[in-house]
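Entry 14. Structure prediction run on the chain below.
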Amino acid sequence: MGAMARRIEDLVVWQLAFELQREVFAFTAIGAAWRDVKFREQIRDASASAARNTAEGFGRFRPKEFARFLEIAHGSLDETKDGLHIGHSRSYLSASEHDRLIVLATRALAANASLGRYLRNCQRT
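Output returned:
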């Protein structure tokens, strides 16, 4: 695991989730995605939930509890990824934007899963 994270901002898993959230908020702030209120609010909430639950779990200071919050964040990342596919199918995202954001979401999911595995194997509860 390397050096211990002292702040949520030190964790790659949070950095990736936060970056995905930032990107989602950016593309939904303009054009047709902005006008599709239900889509906009749903994908924004999902992307914000991933970073938010990662942060909350980190703040609990117990590995198993943190792992549980990462499971919730994982679901939110999957929901965000699904929203990206929907956004692309509705032409809210170009093919290149879609591909770039799917790569980011996939990286966030992989980091989340890796940290979750580590935490579930920690001795401390």
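The radius of gyration is 15 Å.
Filed with the rest of this week's runs.
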